[in-house]
Amino acid sequence: MRPLNEMREVTIGGIGITKWGFYENAEWYDFGSEAILAALKDAEMEWKDVQAAFCGSVYQGTGSGHQAIKEIGLTGIPIINVENACSSCASAFRLAYQMVAAEIYDIVLAVGMEKMPRGPIPSTAFRPWELKLGFNVQPANYANIAVQYMKNTGATMEDFSLVTIKNRRHGTLNPNARFQKPVTLEEVMNSRLVAIPLRLLHCCPLADGAAAFILCSKDKLKSKHKVITVAASTLTSGVYGEGYPPADLIPSLKYPPAMTLSELSAKQAYEVAGCGPADIDVVQAYDTMAPAELWDLEELGFCKPGEAPHLLREGVFDLNGKIPVNTDGGLMSRGHPLGATAGGQIYEIVLQLRGQAGLRQVKDAKVGLAHAMGAGPNSAVTILKR
Amino acid sequence: MTKDGKMIFPLNEGLYTLPSLPDEKTQLIGSKCTNCGELFFPKKDKGLCIHCQQITLEEVKLSRQGKIASFTIVLQPPSGGFYHGPVPYAYGYVDLPEGVRIETQFTGDFNTLEIGGDVELVIEKLYEDAEGNEFVTYKFKPLKD
To answer: Is B80 in contact with A251 (Cβ distance < 8 A)?
Structure first.
């Protein structure tokens, strides 16, 4: 096996995104093609320059990427559809990266797109006997992790609410986010109880949308943007013995894992990138539920287990803090179009490293990390550098 | 058969024993690996241990008492239309002393649920259909002090 960091350097040629929200009169191929065209424009490239396409989505059915690309024009390139739950776009991005790194192609498209089903998200993880017992309520599955986290770390409901408040505050500066209004502690704590102890405003909202990336070798870059390279793009599935209720995984009490899947994907990413958590200037963590951001930051190595609530209260994860987290508002503000979500995270890292994040710009950000995970389970870590 | 010709059905087959003698008590049915000792609930019909990948599983009856590892109380019905029980309902995980974690609904007074609390297996109605037939399931119930 040839180490990826010894292969050809891969750069971000261009990026595109749509405004995320609910659209009754548009489909995934509308969002997808819009994001692809935006990425091409940003890259200052022509559609005919693109040599292969990896298209992430979850709910759109067979050949969903082909449908989006048909809106732009078929050119005979290989189109590969990628369904990997909430990590679909990160997985598509990784495949595009590998194709360029391995010198199979020079210019490759990665896109994530989704028109979400309305209402609670159905999951394939649960067996019929579990469905009959009602074990498929995702906020409840996160609640089961959250109560253990509270017991182990002393974290409070207010800590969880502060994650929502921080991310919604950051989201006010992101014109592409579904929600751009801040929320107060009172609003979060008085929102409807979904699964004790979690309330509605501890859960990320859904959204429709897309994000697209042109990945290319450095010699193919055309735009005058700062050069952003892919330092690492890792993907891990579940490890034996780890409990992860949202993916219907019950922990082994006899054979607990040495590392969680998030820890494993982060470790692999830091090794490939040749850096560690201390070198990261901006982070997009996985805040599908407010408390999840806290244990995510711990598993990614930004602090010790149980320290995240305290650091959150100190403002360490604020836009102007030492480790700015979810600078675009995270899933809490962007919303969660499953197949596109990880693309929203990577898009934000590119903007931050280019210095194009406007009012939410992190000063002199040089290295950024995005983490997507979810059902499967999957865990995808992307590290970009300039 | 119950009163008025109504029937009682297990919600799911094969998850627990059906005692035939008056003194016998229901137990959950799991699998134990004779190679690595790993335990699973429910039992795995294929007999393959997903820890050591050997076809070395044998059926075991599990302890009736354990401790709550975590719990939540759900206040909205699950999606998909598969669940016909009451809402709110409580579910979470129970650790059994032999070293296996069980996903379960809880019954009894939800206010007495706490992590580390002692619970015991019960078989209880989840719901009745339109004809009055009862569908029963295993649950765990907090033990009184």
So the answer is: no
A137: closest chain B residue by CA: B78
Whole-number Cα distances in Å, A110 to A80, A96, A342, A344:
10, 6, 11, 12
| ipTM of the prediction | 0.95
For the stretch A243-288, pLDDT in tens is 999 999 999 999 999 999 999 999 999 999 999 999 999 999 999 9
- Per the DSSP assignment, residues forming a β-bridge with B137 are B124
* CATH value at residue B131: 2.40.50
pLDDT of residue A124: 81
CATH number of A4-119+208-215: 3.40.47.10
Q: Which two structure tokens, joined as six digits, stand for A173?
A: 């500066």
In a domain, B26, yes or no: no
Q: Which residues contact A214 (CB under 8 A, 6 or more apart)?
A: A12, A13, A14, A15, A39, A40, A42, A43, A45, A50, A107, A108, A109
Of A121, A133, A255, the CB nearest to B51: A255
Structural domain containing residue B129: 64-142
DSSP line for A334-365: H-B-HHHHHHHHHHHHHHHHHT--GGGPPTT-
Q: B70 pairs with which residues across the strands?
A: B93
What are the pLDDT digits (tens) for A222-251?
Answer: 999 999 999 999 999 999 999 999 999 999
Q: How far is CA B26 from the centre of its chain?
A: 10
Tokens (6 digits) for A72 = 């732009």
Measured CA to CA, the distance from residue A125 to residue A319 in angstroms comes to 36
**Which of A55, A86, A89, A203 is an active site residue?**
A86
Residue A220 is classified by DSSP as G
Tell me whether residue B126 is in a domain.
yes
Verify whether the Cβ–Cβ distance A147 to B72 is below 8 Å. yes
Are B80 and A254 an interchain contact pair (Cβ–Cβ within 8 Å)?
Answer: no
Q: Are strands A107-114 and A79-82 parallel, antiparallel or unpaired?
A: unpaired
Q: Which helix (H) or strand (E) holds A43?
A: helix A28-43
Q: In chain A, which residues have their Cβ closer than 8 Å to the Cβ of B32?
A: none
> Is there a domain that residue B29 lies in?
no
Determine the residue of chain A that is closest to B92 in CA distance: A144
Whether residue A377 has a cis bond before it, omega within 30° of 0? yes
B58 in any annotated domain? no
Asked whether the beta carbons of residue B73 and residue A255 sit closer than 8 angstroms, the reply is: no
What gap in Å lies between CA B121 and CA A371, rounded to an integer? 40
Burial class (CB in 10 A: 0-12, 13-18, 19+), B37: middle
The partner residues of A82 in beta bridges, in order of sequence, read A56
